[in-house]
Amino acid sequence: MNILLLGATGSIGKSVLSVIEQNKSSLNLFGIALNKNTLESNKIIHSFSPAFVYIENKDAFEKQKKIDKTTFLNGDSELKDLINHEDVDVIVCAISGFAGLKATHLAASSGKRILLANKESIVSGGDLILPIAKENKSEIIPIDSEHNAIFQCLSGERTTDDVKKIIITASGGPFLNKKLSDLRDVTKKDALNHPNWKMGSKVSIDSATLVNKCLELIEAKYLFDLDEKYFELVVHPQSIVHSIVTYIDGSSICQLSMPDMRVPIAHALSNKSRLPIDFNSIDFSSLDLTFQEFPKDREKIQEIARIVCNKGGHLGTIFNAANEVAVESFLKEEISFEKIYEVIYRTFDDNEVSKDISIESINEVDAQTRNHAKKVVKSIA
C-alpha cells in the first residue's frame, strides 16, 4: 500500500511513520508533504526513502531540491499532481489547523481513501468537502481517537438509523475539575501539560479549553451525517473509552484503548486484516473508569458548536479562525488563558450563514475573521 503523508513532520505524522515502520512489508511511504521543517523531513527521507517530497515554503524548497534520489515539489499544481498520482493508494491528511484545508480539499477530489486527522478542514469546510468527496467516491476514514472509535463502533451496521446516541469523550485536560474562575493565572506551561496525551501545542491548548471537543462535535456531525442532537460530550479523565454508540435496542458499543494515536491510525491503514503495532495493554483487573458531565461554565462554547452544526455555512470557518487566533495569542503570552473564550465569543457571529460555499469564500471569511479576532485581542490584552 503506497501512502502519501501530508503533514509528515507533526505529531500525527510521527505516529503514522511509527505504524509504517512496524509494517514495512505491507506499507510503503510513497511521498510526504510539509511546510518548512526540513530537519525532520531529512530524517524521514533517510529512514523511509519516499519518492516525492512536497515542501510548501518556497525558501525551504529551494534549499532542499538538489538532494539526489528524491523528487522535490513546490506549488499548488505540483501538490495536486502528487495527490492524484496513480500510484498513491492512501492519503493521510495530518496538517494541523486551517492550513490543512487546501490539501484536504484537493484530496477530496482524488477518489482515493483519505485518512483524516485535520478536523479544522471539516469544521471550516464540511459543507464543501463532504459533497466533493461523495461525488468523487473518496472514502474518508477519521484517524483521531474519538471519531475513529465511532467509526469502529458503527462498522457492520447497515445504517445509522438505529443509532440512539453517540457519546464523545473528553479527558478534561490539565484543568480537570477546575472552575473557569480558577484559571486566570495559569501559565502556558500549565496548559500544555496534558495528563494523558502527547500532542502539538495547538491541540493541547484546545484540549485544555475543551474547545477541541466542540470542534470534534462539529466534525462528527459532518462525518457521520447525523444531527447534533445525537451527540453528547462527556468528560472521561482516563482517556480509555474514546467514544460510545448507543442503539435504539438499548445496546451500547464502545471502543477502548490506551491513549496512543497509533491505534486509530493502524486501524485506518489496515485492509482486510488489522496491522500489528507495539502498544501498552489495558490492565482490566485494575481498571477504574469514571465519567462526568461537561463543565457547566464551559457550556457557552458548546452552544456555539451546536449553532455551527445547525446553521452551517461559514460559521464553522468563523469559529475555527477565532479559536486559532485566540490560541496563538495565548501561546505568545499576549492574553491570559481565560481570555481565549472571550476572543471567541466576541468574534463569533451566528448571522454569517451564507450557503454560497467555495474554497475562495472560505479563505476570505477566514482572513476577515482573523483580522477581527486580532482586533479583539488588542482590545483586551
What can you tell me about this protein's structure?
With 381 residues, the chain is of the alpha/beta class. It has helices spanning 11-21, 38-48, 58-64, 76-83, 101-108, 119-135, 145-154, 188-192, 201-209, 211-223, 262-269, 299-311, 315-331, 339-347, 359-380, and strands at residues 2-6, 28-34, 52-55, 71-73, 90-93, 113-116, 139-142, 163-170, 231-235, 241-247, 252-256, 292-293. Strands 4-3-2-1-5-6-7 form a 7-stranded parallel beta sheet, sandwiched between helices. The protein has a 5-stranded mixed beta sheet with strand order 11-10-8-9-12, with helices on one face. Helix 5 runs parallel beside helix 6 (119-135), helix 10 packs parallel to helix 12 and helix 14 crosses helix 15. The longest helix has 22 residues, at 359-380. The mean pLDDT is 94.
